[in-house]
Amino acid sequence: MKRQHIETIAVHAGAEVDLATGAVAPPIHLSTTFEHGPACEDLHGFAYIRESNPTQTRLEEAMAQLEGGAAAFVFGSGMGAGACVLQALEPGSHVIFPDDMYVDFRNLRQGYLAKWRIESSVVDMTDIASVQAAVRPNTGLVWTETPSNPLLKVTDLGAVCDIAKQARARVLTDNTFATPILQRPLDLGGDIVMHSTTKYCGGHSDVQGGCLIFRENDSFAEHVLQTRKILGAVASPFNSWLVLRGLRSLACRVEKHSANAAAVAAALSQHSAVEAVNYPGLASHAGHEIAARQMKAFGGMLSFLVKGGWDEAVEVASRVKLFINATSLGGPESLIEHRASSEGKDSITPKNLLRLSVGLEHADDLIEDLLQALA
Ligand SMILES: *Cc1c(COP(=O)(O)O)cnc(C)c1O
To answer: Does the C-beta of 146 come closer than 6 Å to ligand 1?
Structure first.
């Protein structure tokens, strides 16, 4: 059969009918241990839950197919997944990070990498020359996040991959905002894709998880798998099952999230109390052309700057009635968050920025709510 469309993969990957019972919905295997022979001979392909488990394996097969990778490993959280890659690097390695990225990876870089004897640089990845300039002889990894959290900056993944290939470094992409439905970094030359499956993949604000997908199942991928096993950051069977369940509707959810976000972004960008809207789907966005090239649609996340400062932004957040003031993203319900408050004292996010996770409600209701909050 020729390569299936992503919507079809999302429904069927890792969803094989259960051989033992014919069950169409996958079973959840909670067993921590699996029978082996008297000298520990492998009998069933599984041994101990921290190494692998049939429900985790189904999710890993699904994520590998969705991203077009050779292997996928699931974790207890997105942070667990990303940290595992950094922990698997050789001491003395150098990593290039983007200046806008998920806040706890910023905190991880600042608080831990030096202790692990990993060097790092931070660059504006919308400026490809600055990525090139940051390359060192020991650069082992270029970390990308596009669109980024919370500024929605867009990185040209093909261009970064070209630089990394020359430098013999790997490229990791945090693909949480875009999802494999809208963007497939491995097709653009990337080596590793990371997801917080807590967000769109799970999709219902009720499960935490992370995933790494590798273009090649090479010795580095094996080392990451070994690191997951030794450090123990693996996903539980039940959480794996919930993410697997979320994947079945991922394609149609992301389509609706994107359409709603586009409508909200258009409405906000015309409002006199709004200074700027960060949404790659707007023609005015600095990364619009690159995003249009490397993404199928522009996703459900956006942020905007309220005219004024900290107080004016918090005031708007306090007046919404339908949006919920909460962190996280990717669920059916629309969320709003004043990121400077959320990120704490080291935050570098503009003080008047509000981030929206645009949900699956009717766009008109969402726009009406924001307009009354801005009035
Ligand atoms: C939430 C998030 C993470 C971290 O994932 P957790 O599941 O919360 O550990 C990483 N990257 C991005 C872009 C995120 O939004």
So the answer is: no
